[in-house]
Each structure stands twice: as C-alpha cells, then as structure tokens.
Amino acid sequence: MSAPDLTHASRREAIAFILKNAFISAFVALVIFSLMIGVRTEAGPTGQLIYWTRFDDLATIVAVVFAGSIAVELLRQWWGPVGVVGAIAPSVQRGLDFAGKAAPPLLLIFAFLVPVLFYNQRYLLDLSILVLTYVMLGWGLNVVVGLAGLLDLGYVAFYAVGAYSYALLSTNFDLSFWMCLPLAGILAAFWGVLLGFPVLRLRGDYLAIVTLAFGEIIRLVLLNWESLTGGPNGVSSIPRPTFFGIPFTRGDDGFAARLGIEFSPTHRIVFLFYVILALALLTNWVTIRLRRLPIGRAWEALREDEVACRALGINITTTKLTAFATGAMFGGFAGAFFATRQGFISPESFTFQESALVLAIVVLGGMGSQLGVALAAVALIGGFELFRGFDQYRMLVFGMAMVLLMIWRPRGLIGHRAPTVFLKQNTAISAELAKEGRG
Amino acid sequence: MDYFAQQLINGIVLGSIYGLIAIGYTMVYGIVGMINFAHGDIFMIGGFIALITFLILVSIGLTTVPLILLIVLLVSMAITSLYGWTVERIAYRPLRHSFRLAPMLSAIGVSFVLMNFSQVSQGARVKPIPPIITGGYSLLESDGFVVRLSNAQIIVVLTTIVLLAIFTWLVSRTRLGRDMRACEQDQTMAALLGVDVDRTISMTFVIGAALAAVAGMMYLLYYGLVDFFMGFVAGIKAFTAAVLGGIGSLPGAMLGGLLIGLIETMWSAYFSVEYKDVAAFSILIVVLIFLPTGLLGRPEVEKV
Amino acid sequence: MSHESILIVDGLTMRFGGVVAVNGLSFAAERRKITALIGPNGAGKTTVFNCITGFYKPTSGVIRLTHDDGRNFHLERLNDFRISKKAKVARTFQNIRLFPGMTALENLMVAQHNALMQASGFTFLGLIGVPSYRAAERRAIDRAKHWLDRIGLIDRADDAAGNLPYGDQRRLEIARAMCTEPALLCLDEPAAGLNARESAGLSELLLSIRGQGTSIILIEHDMSVVMEISDQIVVMDYGVKIAEGAPQVVRDDAKVVAAYLGADEEEAAAVMESGA
Predict the structure, then answer these.
(1) 147-206 in A: which are within 8 Å (CB) of B?
(2) Is the pLDDT confidence value at A242 over 90?
(3) Which residue of C has its CA nearest to A368?
(4) What are chain B's partners, defined as 3 or more CB pairs within 8 angstroms?
(5) Is A217 an interface residue toward B (CB < 8 Å)?
(6) pLDDT at B247
(7) CA distances from C111 to A146, A419, C100, C104, C144 (A)
C-alpha cells in the first residue's frame, strides 16, 4: 500500500503521525528505562549499595527506540494493514503444501546423515543431540497440548522423573540403560496418571496452574530430599550408555577395540545421536499411529468439544488420563536419555523455563503438527545456540523472539490439521476451524 | 501460643504482599481472560525501581523517612504502571482475539525479557539495603519469647488496607470501574454502548502494575532486598493465591493471598522451611479438587 | 404399558438453588414412536433432556429406559457417558456441537468410538495394526458412509464440519448421534434455523429413522414439523406437564393454547392452525 496517489497534504499528515508515534515511544522508553538503565546499582566496597549513572546508555536506548518506532511504522505502511500480511496467495500456498509433503523425508534423510556429515565437528553433533531431545519432548507434549487440548505447564516434571529414575536405578541397582529406559517411561506415565486424576475436573487456566504447581512440587522435592536425590548437588557419575553391553572405552573390551578400529570419543557421541534419533522417531511413529486410532480421534474430539464427547459415550476420564500418560511416558524416555548423556543431573535442569520452552516449541510448531514441532525445535534451540556468545542476553533475545513469533503466527508455523481418515481426498483443515480445547 | 501469634503476624504481612500481586492477576484474568505471566516480573521491576529511587533520595541527603517513603511509593507506582501499559500494548493487544495460548506464550516471553532485562541492567547479585523503617512494639512477653510487631509490618498491612479501600472504591464507584466491569461481562456489547475497550483494558494493566509496584516496594521494606529472580517465585505464589481465591474475584485474590502467606509461614514455623512451597502448592491442588473454581470463584455453569 | 414404553419419566424434579426448573414431571415415550416435548421458552424442556442424557443429576424422580430385550436402565443413576455407551441414548444439541475442525467423516468415526476402541484392543492391538481392527475400521467407515449418504453429504465427507452450511450441520449432528446405534434418540430443536425445504427434508429423515426402529424424543418449536411427524405430544409450562396426547388432541386443548402462547388466544389459535 505505497499509494502513489497520496496528496501532498496527506503525506505530511502521515509523516506527522509517524513522528508523533515515535516521540511517544521515545518518551515512554525514557521513563521506563530512566532508572533501570540510567542508574546502575551495585554493592560497594563496604557492602553498602552504591550507584552510578549511565545516561549515555539511556540516551542510546531512547534514540534506538525512536528510530525503531519510525522504522516499524514505515514498514507497516509499506506492508499494508496487518490483516493482509496474514493472507497467503493460493499459489504460494500450493508451494508450501508441496514443501510440506517433501520436507519430512528430506529432513529424515538429513537427520540420518548428520553424524556422517559432521563427524569431526563435535560441537555440531552435541547440538544436534540437544535439538533432537527437544524435538522428542515437543512431540511428547504435543500429545497432551496439541491433540487433547490440555494445557500442561509442568511437562518438565515427567522429564525429571525419567531422568532421576534412570539415574537412581542405575547408580543404586546397577541396571543398564536399556533396562531402565522402559522403566523410566512407565514411572513417568504413572506420575502422569497421578497428576491426571486431580486435574480431570479442572478447565483451562486452573489446569495450567495446577500442572505448573505440580512441576514445581517435583522440582522442590528433588531439591530437598537429599538422602535420595542428593539435593542441589544432584546425582553424578551416572553410567554412560553402552553399545548393548559393550562400553565406549579405550580398554580392550571397549567398542573400538572389539571392532578393531582406533578409539575415538566421537563413537559414543554418534551412538547417542542415533539413540535419540530412534527415540524421537518412535515418539513420532506412535503419535501418528495413535491419531488414526479411536483413542487419538477421541483426544482430538475432546479438544474440539468435551460436552459432545460425553454425549457420544466417550469416557472423558480415561481419555484424558491416557493423553497425560502417553505424553508423560515420552517425557520420561527423553529424561532417561538426558541423564545418560549428561552423566550428571541436578534439579537445576528441570525448571519452569524448560516447560515453557517445550510449550513454546509445541505452540510455535502449530498445535498438533508433527513437522511443525520439529521445525520449531530446530529454530528455537538452534537460534538459542546462536546467542551462546552473548550468554547474558540469551533469555532477553529468546523472550523477545517468543513475543514476536506469537504476534507473527499465533497459530504456529504449520496452521493446518490433516484429517485422520478420508474417503476421496485428504484436504488439510485450516487451523482457524480447529478448537484449542478448554481443558 | 506466643510463637503462634508471632507466626500469624508474619503470615498476614506476607499474605498482604501476595494479595496485592494477586489482584493484578485476577483483574487481568477477569477482563481479558489470560494469565499475565509477566505480572510477577512487573512486581520485581517495582521493587527495583523503589530500591533505586530510595538510593537516590538518600544520596541527595533526604532524611525524613515518611517523605522518602511517599516519594518512593509514587515514583515506583508511576514508572511500573508504565511498564504494565507498555507490555499490554506491545505483547498482548495484537493477540487479543487470537488463539488462547498465543497471549499466554507471549506473556511467558515478556516474563523472560523483564527478568533478563533487570539481570543485565542491574546485575545478577542480590541487592540489600539497610532497614529504612526501624523499631516496633513488643506485644506479649512470656517465657522469654517476645511477640514483636515491627513498624515495617504495620506499614505493610496499613498500606495494603488503604490501597484496597481505594481500589474497591475505584472498581465499584467510578466510571472506570463500571467500564471495567462491563468489559468483563461482554466486550462487544460494552463497545457498542460507548465504552472505550482498549483504554479500559490498558487501565486494567496500569492499575494491576501499580499495585504490583506497591507490593514490590513493601517487599523491599520488609525483607530489605531485591533480586532479579524474585518475580518468578512471588508471581507463581500470587497466581496460586488468585486461583485459590477464585480467579476473577477481587476479594478472592486478597483472601487467597492471605491464605498462601499464612500457610507458608505456618509450615515453615512448625514443619520445615524447605517444603513451604510444596505445602502451598499442594493445598492449592487439594482445594481445586474439591472446589474447581476456587474459594470465592463463581461456579462455572455448564450450558448444554 | 411398561413394554410399550421405551422411556418412563416419573416424578422428575430439577431444582437449581431456589429455582424449580422441572417440577414432578411424569410422562412415557412409546417405543418406535416419535414423542414431541413442546412448551414456551423456559418451560424446562431442555432441562428434562439434560436429565435424561445425564448432563444434570435430577433432584428427585425416576427415569427408566427399557431396551427391546427387556433390560432396564435407571438413567438418573448413570454417569453421562455411560448413558450413551450402555443405555444407548444419543442426543443432539440446541446449539450445534459438532467437532468443527474435524471432517464430516471423522465426526461420524468419533461417534463409533466405543465399538472401535474394543476392536483396537484398547489401542494396543490397533497400534500394531492387527487385521481384525482394520476390518472393524472398514465397517465403521461403511456405516459412516451409509449415514452420509442418507443425509446427502457423501460428497462433502472430507470437508471440515465447521465449513458446512447450517442445515447440513444439523443433519450431520443427527447422523453422528445415529452412528452410536442408539435405542432412543433425543433431538433438541432439530429444525431451528432451517428453511421450509430443509424442514421438510428433516421430517422425512426423522420418519425414516423411526421406520428403522429407533424411538425419538424431540423438543421443537416449529409446529409444522411437530404436527407432521409426532405420534404423541407432551406439553410443558413452568416445569410441569399441562397436556399430553396425540397431535390433534393437544392442538385443540384450550389449556395448551392459552398457556403456550400466553393470554393472546387469537394469535395462539392462528399459530396452532398454521401447524395443522
């Protein structure tokens, strides 16, 4: 909407409008940053707080806000009204649809090749493992939030249960990773059901706060039950994974020696990579299967309309509980993996921030979309890593990104729902129609 | 008995602070139906601004305590409410009629931003100040145990009561309060009847933030320190209080705040300090099992 | 009378705080017949429905459902979802409650949840894809196709339910209820918002459902539909029954005419006539 027929007067009006907005923004910035940035407090040599001023920083920020406001306003006029931005031309849409169909297999092939392509880049391998862990967590939470429409702000609790299950079982009873993995899943699912019971009657934001409270309770118990969990010191020297019994060590019975190749610490990393890839793919496969089974349809129906579900004879209680349990189980698997990868866990890894991050991945991915969740995990965790150098600004940038992404795409990256069964053609349903659940 | 009385006093003081924050949650929830996750951090910002203002006032040689308190209160309320306004304007308004989870995620993002902002701008270390209000009264004395009521405690509770009175008057007697209640019931209809919905919602955030600023200042007075992380824990507790009282209900928020404050204090006093938060959250869960809409919340009638 | 009646409501009372929405209501719905529940707005009709379908627990009274094989169910004692699952009572809603983001076909598949759940071995067998589950799913799709055909929506099977026109949504909701294979179908204002042609189609559909042996209770304001298809009418006002009987009998009842449309008897008579 650059509107070339703008008369001189209206152009002047537009400029005046932009300037006025910019001045208001700058003034607001001046006030809110006046003390927080203009003044810096710190404990002085005697322990007393002292302060000094930073008016140059304040001036810079206010100038940035002033310029930024003008830039945003110009961009807005250039783009046209916000509503138009959201609309996508049909041709573009077709292109996106094609990309959507082609992307999963390509991504999968790429994922399998990562250890080959980046064998010598330890950092990238570690990062890929981290991303895949979050992909798996996202897919797990997606069952609860995306499919069943139950808002869970305490998902990290199940991740913690899985991690501590493996850590404690392996350090206390010498159980192997492959024995503990199912146990960790089962225990997490059990806790999922335990949480599910009291919250069945709750809706929406009550559910949100109770799940949040539950997550905090688990973390606080882990933090304070020192005789079992080691308290803030956590559990250390958790056994590293073995290749089905063969350890990745330098010794004679190590993995490398048995294969007759030269020992390299990367072997274990590559192995870990494929373990988490397999776990994530298992999560994905199970979720896709479940969606096409009656239980998965019931989850989605529950998200759409709980009252109608009851009228159709669907047992709401068990349906919700299975959703909680399934999501929790995947969280538990991921937790066990996390514990074996790190070799050390402490309550610090299981804070609300983690829950919020996983929830952000699910919502940004587009609720219920498996591909979207994977892309969002790559984008958020990858983006997060880009700022590793500016450690102290990471959360600042991450928070801003969350706000902007929500404003840009409130429905997530992939705003479509694929039907689970079809007669003639499989047409994606716009997310505008799908409900988000009240539970 | 004396020990109990002392804990009761401490609990009520803590509860007043929680209650003030909880009102902000409940007001925003009532009017726009979203959990303002950033509200706890607004409280934290309020505490910081009070701290900085205090330092400046002392350094320019002001010594009259009541005057200092008044200026700190006003500056903190003014600047913090502008934070509330800005946050609503930037992060929530564009998402007002969107998907329910979007504003919530946006709020979590804002919370991270505010937390990190004060960490970066003021440093991560805890900021202690010397006690501003000293002295107090000894109420009871027996077996060598003294029940004390400090002046700081009196000021916290008195300020809370005065603010609540003003606030109740605002909501029930003024034009703004009427507009707020109208928007709570039906925004479309309110707009048709000439209520400026945008402005009313902005004002809700402003008032909520102002109350949170007061809570932040009270926290500073009472505990004598602030840090960038305090908003998260206090925010969760205050939100718990709002839900416990029945979210959307203003007396409920205050009641919930008092209860959470008392539970926390009593649990620390008689059982264990480490598990005080576990106790508060567990009681929340138990209450919600039996009263799914909190203590004073309107029961949700299911329209079929 | 017990074997003729599929549903016997006896002394049903529903109180909300101080308000008595339904007060000592008794009536019986005959098997394989259409029973209409009519009355002015606020007479308590939907409350009766919510009691029958388990959304409300009645303050007092008995609601007994008898299946063809003589099995009895006390609906006031069953939980909501068991009323549909065990007692085989299905319902529709005054304000349509489809699953708008799911396709028409998916809506009908969800309705067959309990049967499919069993066939999928409570998910475990379905997860590994046993043939018996696949067969059950094919049968479920066939049943859904059958109903889509009957309501004339087979071509829109893969469209989101929320995208269908209003009248189609009404019919789809009835089809969805029928996919649960109910013994008793409860319809809350099925003709609301339909035009004359759609209403006629609806009457036809309901008569054909009755023809295949399903009993129907409906709440309806559209007298042309009520008079045309009902075998029996129960008239309610202020929570009590004021008349009952065949359409002709009810139509000529002075008490009904007076109560149903207030004091203005002339207008009342005119409306009743138009329904004839």
Answers:
(1) 151, 198-199, 201-206
(2) no
(3) C101
(4) A, C
(5) yes
(6) 82
(7) 21, 16, 14, 11, 9
DSSP tag of B298: P
Give the whole-angstrom CA distance, residue A170 versus residue C221: 69
| pLDDT above 90 coverage of chain C, percent | 21
* C154 chain-A contacts, CB cut-off 8 A: 423
Cβ distance C55 to A434 less than 8 Å, yes or no, reads no
Question: CA nearest A328: which of A222, A211, A172, A179?
Answer: A211
Q: Which residues of B touch C14 (CB under 8 A)?
A: none
Closest to B236 measured CA to CA, from B48, B100, B57, B41 = B41
Q: Dihedral of CA A8/A11/A15/A16: which sign? A: positive
Three-state helix/strand/coil letters over C184-250: EEEEECCCCCCCHHHHHHHHHHHHHHHHCCCEEEEECCCHHHHHHHCCEEEEEECCEEEEEECHHHH
Q: Does residue C264 surpass a pLDDT of 60?
A: no
Q: Is the pLDDT of residue A1 over 50?
A: no
C50 touches chain B (CB under 8 A): yes
- Is A36 within 8 Å of B49 when comparing Cβ atoms? yes
Which tokens in the block code for residue A237?
């020297």
Contact B80, A366 (CB under 8 A): no
Chain B residue whose CA is closest to C51: B304
Which site among A32, A35, A65, A353 would you substitute to test the B interface, given the most B Cβ atoms closer than 10 Å to its Cβ?
A: A35
Residues of A in contact with C117 (CB under 8 A): 294-295, 298
Note the Cα A151 to chain centre separation in Å. Answer: 14
Tell me the backbone φ, ψ of residue A345, rounded to 5 degrees: -135, 150
Q: What is the pLDDT of residue B253?
A: 92
Instruction: Among A304, A305, A315, select the one facing C81 at the smallest CB separation.
Output: A315
Give the containing element (helix H, strand E) for A420: none
The radius of gyration of chain A's CA atoms, rounded to the nearest angstrom, is 25
Q: Where are the domains of chain B?
A: 15-115+132-229
Is residue A3 predicted with pLDDT exceeding 50?
no
User: Residue A437: its pLDDT value, please?
Assistant: 62
Q: How far apart are CA A410 and CA B148, in angstroms?
A: 53
Select the highest-mean-pLDDT range: B38-42, B296-300, C265-269: B38-42
The pLDDT tens digits for C82-111 are: 888 888 899 999 888 999 989 999 999 999
CB-based contact C102 A304, cutoff 8 Å: yes
Closest CA to B132 of B65, B71, B77, B67: B65
Concatenated DSSP letters of C1-70: -TTTEEEEEEEEEEEETTEEEEEEEEEEEETTSEEEEE-STTSSHHHHHHHHTTSS--SEEEEEEE-TTS
Query: pLDDT (tens digit, 9 = 90+) per residue, B196-245?
Result: 999 999 999 999 999 999 999 999 999 999 999 899 889 888 988 998 89
Query: What tokens does B22 get?
Result: 């909880």
Q: What number does CATH give the domain C1-87+218-276?
A: 3.40.50.300
- pLDDT per position as a tens digit, A287-322: 998 998 999 999 999 988 888 998 899 988 889 999
Residue in A closest to B120 by C-alpha: A392
Across the interface, whether the CB atoms of C93 and B302 are under 8 A apart is answered no
Residue of B nearest to C48 (CA): B304
**Residue type at A191 in one-letter notation:** W
A43 vs B102: CB contact, 8 Å cut-off? no
Domain spans of chain C? 1-87+218-276, 89-181
Which residue in chain B is spatially nearest to A226 when comparing CA positions? B274
Q: Which CATH code fits C89-181?
A: 3.40.50.300
Residue B61 · residue B250 · CB < 8 Å: no
